[in-house]
Each structure stands twice: as structure tokens, then as C-alpha cells.
Amino acid sequence: YPFLNSDDFSVGAWLSESGASMATIDRFLKLPFVTKQNRLSFRTAQELYTKIALLPQPPKWLSRTVVVPGGTSLEPLTLFYRNGLEVFKFLLANPVFSGKQNFVPQKCFDEGDVVFFDEPTTAQHMWEVQVKFTSHFLI
Fold first, then answer.
1. pLDDT by residue (tens digit) across 46-93?
2. Pfam families in the record, alphabetically (predicted)?
């Protein structure tokens, strides 16, 4: 949603990112090759941009100025970030990522028994959450 499938989305994304004007996109969408295929959910540039506006929007960027006492930077540092919980909700709700999320806890080892963490699924918290959910959803 709001596109029919990944091909519909891909063509729409390409057209919107191509830099083509709305008139040029309309001309492309009226080509016999495109109209005979009848595989797109939009017939005009306006319809395409209306669909794009319906796509879930990512969380906004936030910033915070950080001063490190005793640090070597002459000026304060600006840290840019997004709210992690909002990003998580966005990814879960976004149909583009449907069925592509991995919530299986993992333990990753680097050269022997040294554990390393690089994804949310490698965190100890994922194991704790898995235990809680497993006990509630066993069949």
C-alpha cells in the first residue's frame, strides 16, 4: 500500500527521483508501451505524487549540542539522531519492509568466545524479550 506491488513502486520511485518534470512524467505514462501494459496504479504524475504522499514518513531528525569537558574539540559537537522507538515503529509499520524483519535473537562471536554486538537481535535484551514472549505464545 499504496502501490500495487514492488514493480509498481519501483517505477514510481524511479520516475519521482529522475528529476523529470510532471509534464514529462505524464508524457511517459501516456506512451502506448506503458498504457498497453496497464500494470501501474497511477496514470498521471499527480496520481503518482499523491500515492507517494501516502507512504509512511520516517521519524524526524533531532539534534543535540554536546560539549565534552577536557575534549580536544574547539567547538561544541552537534549530534544528529532519531528517536529509536519511533524508528522501530516506522520500520514495523512500513509495508516495504513487511516480512523482511528478523527478530530471532543471535549470539555472534569474534575469534573464539568474544561476543560482539552489531544489530538489535544480537543484544542481550532480545534474549530476555524472546523468553517472555515464548512463554506466552507456546502452542
1. 999 999 998 888 999 999 999 888 888 888 999 999 998 899 888 888
2. Plavaka
**One-letter-per-residue 3-state SS of 2-40:** CCCCHHHHHHHHHHHHCCCCHHHHHHHHCCHHHHHHCCC
Residue in the structure block whose three cell numbers are 530471532 = 104
Query: 109: helix, coil or strand?
Result: strand
Question: In the structure grid, which three cell numbers stand for residue 63, read together?
Answer: 539534534
Provide the grid cell at 54. 501516502
User: In the chain, where does DSSP find H-type helix?
Assistant: 6-17, 22-29, 32-37, 45-54, 84-93, 124-137
Centre a 10 Å sphere on the Cβ of residue 51 and count the other Cβ atoms it contains. 19
Contacts of 14 (CB under 8 A, 6+ apart): none
Ranges of each domain in the chain: 6-54, 62-97, 108-137
What is this structure's pTM?
A: 0.54
Q: What is the mean pLDDT of residues 120-131?
A: 83
Average pLDDT over residues 6-20: 94
Q: Which amino acid is at 18?
A: S
